[in-house]
Amino acid sequence: MTETKTVETHAFQAETRQVLHLMIHSLYSNKEIFLRELVSNASDALDRLRFAAISDDGVYEGDGDLRIEIEADEEAGTLTVRDNGIGMSRDDVMENIGTIAKSGTRAFLDQLSGDQQADAHLIGQFGVGFYSSFIVADRVTVLTRKAGEDAAAGVRWESDGGGEYSIETVEREAHGTEVILHLKEAEKEFLSSWTLRSLVGRYSDHIGFPIRMQEKGEDETLEWKDINKASALWTLPKSEISEEEYQSFYKYLTHDLDDALCWAHNKVEGSQSYTTLLYVPQTAPMDLMLQRDERTGLRLYVNRVFIMDAAQQLLPHYLRFVRGVVDSDDLPLNVSRELLQENELSGKIRSAVIRRSLDLIAKTAKDDSDQYDKFWTQFGAVLKEGVVEDFAHHDQILPLLRFASTKGDGDRHVVDLDGYLERMPEEQDAIYFITAENHRAAANSPHLEVFREKGIEVLLMSDRVDEWMMAYLQQYKETPFKSVAKGDIDLGAVGKTDEKESEEKAEPDAASLDADLLKKVQESLGERVSEVRSSRRLTDSASCLVLGDEEMAL
Question: What pLDDT, on the 0 to 100 scale, is given for residue 319?
């Protein structure tokens, strides 16, 4: 089958060696994920071949039966995962396997915590899943050829997971890729047909391509037989999909080890037809606040044909944690990212995705407050970005916001704006809030003294986005927001008793008593402050800094 050419040996870059070391030594308790990752890579290769065939069906090379094959050889101690997908050129292999000169690897390493369970979540997230092969194999061989290239352009790559790998050009008739794992002696359980079937059923049952293994037929000869459902889950009626199947597909799609927090599956039929399957994860990636790259967005299909990963045009940035699939019957198969920006139908799909995502989050808030608390802890700061970025959906976003408050439960963000309005005294005419670097600073601010004395609730905001958000958030249900640390505060009769009012009327005017003192403080501070004045804000502290209405607090 092969005619070997000159073999080249290359050293892995330092970051790749670190990833390999992690896979081999640190993630042993999650070793079965290797099969999920290899099958997922094979599925992606088949998707990309089918997409390439839209413009040139010659890439099929007469073999349009797209499939994934898993072959166990007990005698040789090898496990092979094979696909007839797009395959790789020599340059592709060097880039994707040999050196991984991509930011994802560095980011992956930067996020490692040393906790096996937590680190396992990062494998698929950062696109280094291939290296999980070395958890169970002491040597890995890759044979591949890019579809449409000559048979002489095949590539053979091999490594034992140490500091080097070999690569050579070989003759290879079939396009696609096969990954051959030379299993460690202690990992021969993965040659068991029952074990392999079980893992495929758990992680890869609803991959949209057949996964095949050899079985003995009636005449005792080996035959390739499908071992998965090979149906795109989102195309099935909701009534036919179990919760376990929804969760299994989520894990395949996202490489997450945890179940999804919630999901929504919708099919729209009419002048435009499309299906959406949206998931909200339980846990945020550690770089969620920094993500503005190809790892966010939805997976786009047109008539079950894969078009692109991370279709960011279908999802606003503040909903970047939402994962899932959009399958349209009406978008053109050659749709590009640029066309998605301009296409009228994609705009309608985007609006529907936003609405359904927010509805899904709102349903969780209504049905399960404990689950929503978990959601808010993970994704609340990101959702707040929508207050600034998406004015059109304010009516859906604002009721979802949660805050700590002076009448809340410590630093827990459990207070919603509707609840705040319900507790407001009749004479109160504003929603009061304070922003600070952290919860402790907010809760202990001297600006709160008079509000506590009068029993007026104040929202305590300490997320990095809060000051930015409040610069744009002017009111809620016609009640304005007012910072307790900015401008003049006139509480009027709010929270007062007749006794307090009579006491205040009896007091001499503080401004007239302290005029000389105020003048001296003003002269001492000079241009560092615009004005020094007496105030009824404070009940215990001697002084506090008050900003102008338009100034930023942080």
Answer: 95
CB 355 within 8 A of CB 264: no
Q: Are the C-beta atoms of 388 and 472 separated by less than 8 Å?
A: yes
More confident residue, 501 or 27: 27
CA 48 to chain CA centroid, nearest Å = 23
Instruction: Assess contact for 350 and 358: CB atoms under 8 A.
Output: no
Q: Is this model's pTM higher than 0.90 or not?
A: no
pLDDT digits (tens, 9 = 90+) for 119-145: 555 554 545 678 889 989 999 999 999
Between 499 and 550, residue with greater pLDDT: 550
DSSP 95: I
Residues in the chain: 554
Domains and CATH numbers, the chain: 8-231 (3.30.565.10), 251-373 (3.30.230.80), 415-528 (3.40.50.11260)
Here the tokens at position 35 are 């099969």
* Phi and psi torsions of 254, nearest 5°: -110, -10
Q: What's the CA gap between 47 and 105, in Å, rounded?
A: 24
Alpha carbon of residue 1 to chain centroid: 44
What would the two tokens of residue 264 be? 């929504």
Residue 540, token pair as written in the block: 């215990």
Residue 502 has what pLDDT?
43
